[in-house]
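go over this chain:
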Amino acid sequence: MTEALLVSNIVSWVVILALVLAVLALARQVGILFERVAPMGALMMDTGPKTGDVAPIFSLPTLTGGQVEIGGAAPRSTLLFFLSPTCPVCKKLLPIIKRARKAEGDWLRVVLASDGEEPEHRAFIQRAGLGDFPYLLSQELGMTYHIAKLPYAVLIDEQGRIGAKGLINSREQLESLFTAKELAVGSVQQFIEQKA
């Protein structure tokens, strides 16, 4: 009886040691994988005005009242956020856009842009609580920047140049535009390619 108990105890310790070694090996592999996987920033399309180019200048009326100047020198950078009332990802990002505007408001102005029928957008502005955002309805603006997929954002710096741009699907991708501006590169991917 004691012999069976001793054998089972030894087997248990061997299994525990094997499990500890397996956990350590997995932890090492996760660390290696983490080092190899680069942070994913906003996906930059190669169409439209390039980063570093002077942003096209627009003076457009907003659906929320007033006129907005896009492009040219300005006291703050402008985040031009292209969205649609029918885009579920756009709706998911609106609280993030609101928080970003509040947190980065000392250097950043957020302008929402779309195209389509005005009544639909006015209802969307009301439903989503976007009345305090400049909201542009301009097909020409989207065509100038070659916006093919939504949600898409263009960051225009204080000198009126396109600092960063890309397809935005998460908070991290939005923040990658701000990081790209700080690093003076067109995108996080471009920065990683330069370092490689």
